[in-house]
Amino acid sequence: MIIVSSCLAGMKVRYNGTDCLEDTIGRLVKEGKAVALCPELLGGFATPREPAEIAGGTGEDVLLGKARVVTKSGEDVTDMYMKGAEEALRLAKEAGATAVVLKEFSPSCGSSMIYDGSFANRQTAGNGVTAALFEREGIRVVSEAQIAEVVDVE
């Protein structure tokens, strides 16, 4: 079983109320081969919501207490991101997930690239909070562009 970001499955859960449907992922969810979840909704956020970025580091740094997740207006929402990541991990373990396909650039789900915390549309290498927690727990994390690495996409 794999876990996928809900927005990649076509659910309108992104901060701005849109999705990022990736056809293969949507099909896998419909066929019961993948389970969709949104760590931000699991953390208590609503849709739409103010955009947030990791300030002062990466998701790994957030887990270590060295960085924070803040909204564009400056509100610290780290605790909600942590709660969502922990709940996503619990659900992934419950489902027996061996891999997760997460939305790149998200402060939750970014699997190799995130925004740099400046809200200037600048990207930097690093994981989001949920991706970092999954990797810490030994669950393979890939972006939507790498789905073929974890599932037969034919």
Task: Give structural notes.
This protein has one domain (2-149). The strands form three sheets. A four-stranded parallel beta sheet has the order 2-1-5-8, with helices on both faces. Strands 3-4 form a two-stranded antiparallel ribbon. The radius of gyration is 14 Å and the shape is globular. The longest helix is centred in the middle third of the chain and has 18 residues, at 78-95. The protein has helices at 23-30, 39-42, 59-63, 78-95, 129-136; strands spanning 2-5, 34-37, 52-55, 68-71, 99-102, 113-115, 123-125, 140-143. Helices cover 28% and strands 19% of the residues. Strand 1, helix 1 (23-30) and strand 2 (34-37) form a beta-alpha-beta unit. The protein has 154 residues and is an alpha/beta fold. The chain has five helices and eight strands.
List keywords for this structure.
154 residues, two-stranded antiparallel ribbon, 5 helices, four-stranded parallel beta sheet, 19% strand, 8 strands, single chain, alpha/beta
Short structural summary:
It holds the Pfam family 2-thiour_desulf. By secondary structure, the chain is an alpha/beta fold.
Task: Describe the secondary-structure layout.
Elements: E1 2-5, H1 23-30, E2 34-37, H2 39-42, E3 52-55, H3 59-63, E4 68-71, H4 78-95, E5 99-102, E6 113-115, E7 123-125, H5 129-136, E8 140-143
Parallel strand pairs: 1-2, 1-5, 5-8
Antiparallel strand pairs: 3-4, 6-7
Main sheet properties: 4 strands, parallel
Strand order of the largest sheet: 2-1-5-8
* Domain tally: 1
- Computed over alpha carbons, the radius of gyration is 14 Å
Distance between the termini: 16 Å
**What is the chain-wise order of helices and strands?**
EHEHEHEHEEEHE
| Helix coverage percent | 25-40%
Structural class: alpha/beta
Q: Compute the number of strand runs.
A: 8
* Poorly predicted runs: none
InterPro entries: 2-thiour_desulf
Protein name: DUF523 domain-containing protein
Pfam families: 2-thiour_desulf
